[in-house]
Write the structure tokens for this entry.
Amino acid sequence: MASLAKHTPRLVYRPFCLAIGYLFCEIIMIILGVESSCDETAAAVLVDGKLAANIINSQIEVHRRYGGVVPELASRHHLQNIYPVVETALGEAGVSLDDLDGLAVTQGPGLVGALLIGLSFVKAISLVKRIPYVGVDHLAGHLLSVFLGEEKPNFPFIALIASGGHSSIFLVRSHFDYQLLGRSRDDAAGEAFDKAAKLLGLPYPGGPEISRLAADGDPQAIAFPRAWLAPDSLDFSFSGVKTALANQVNNCRQGSGQALAIADLCASFQEAVAEVLVVKTLRAAERHAVENIVVAGGVAANPRLRALFAERCQGSGRALFLTPTQFCTDNAAMIALAGWHQFETRKTLCLDLDAYSRTPILA
Ligand code: KG4
Ligand code: ZN
């Protein structure tokens, strides 16, 4: 009896979800997306595939004093923020919960405590309002975020995701078919920017700070190493360039008495990271004979990386699709969009969906 009681809600809910999912899969119109994988609480509303609201509550100020994201604080702030963020998104889109046809929520990867806030919130709405929901992989969101822009690539395309947690190259054949071609063996590109900024005494998150200061620096001032790895490798390694920066900073501070040329250090470091990201992404495109290149993730907001991609793609005759800057860093619009496509394939899920910290997309 006890075990039947335990499983009854699931047994009842599963057929219900599937039935509703099948019923709505062809006519899903209004989707609420929710993202809470790290330090942004975000909600977005997609109406007929078009973005009607995109609300992001960033916790940067909360975590800045610690020099990085503190997981428990992130969860607590998601808990405080999720209701107002969702309410604001619905209000901006001019819809209520009763108008929603589907819900999409980040399932992983990310901080599990943070993910569970968004996931539980969406499950509660799903249960109370009888609206089907899907769990979305955060990386799938980044891979598809380019479609939120005006210029939309055709499949297949080579996509670089450069973010705080990942630096990966994918061959993307459809909205659901992603083949991993290369990945970071140590620090992700955004992580390298954040750690470099810390070494330079700059606040978290370091990427925007470094790119701001780099604008006044000379990218050739310091010859930072580029980790190409094996000649044909599509993997990345950014720990070496970070150590090289640490050595430069220590030399200046301890021995040489030289002033820290911070703008030059930022510009040279940024150039070293950007060049490797661009060269390896184009190498992947050449190897797989793919014409279209997509760049996504928080680091894709970096102006120098965008300019270098534009320059090199033009030089090699490839079509470049840069994710619009406002959709590069974490947002729920990309989750709503990826979820919308998942509804097309009837992947409606049930209340037993769990969060995960590592993505199966990289398996
Ligand atoms: O995609 P995202 O918001 O979160 C993850 O999924 O990780 O990426 C955040 C990362 C941070 O490491 C941040 O420093 C970096 O993106 N970032 C940048 C810039 N803007 C954000 N890195 C370099 N230049 C930027 N302008
Ligand atoms: Zn992200």
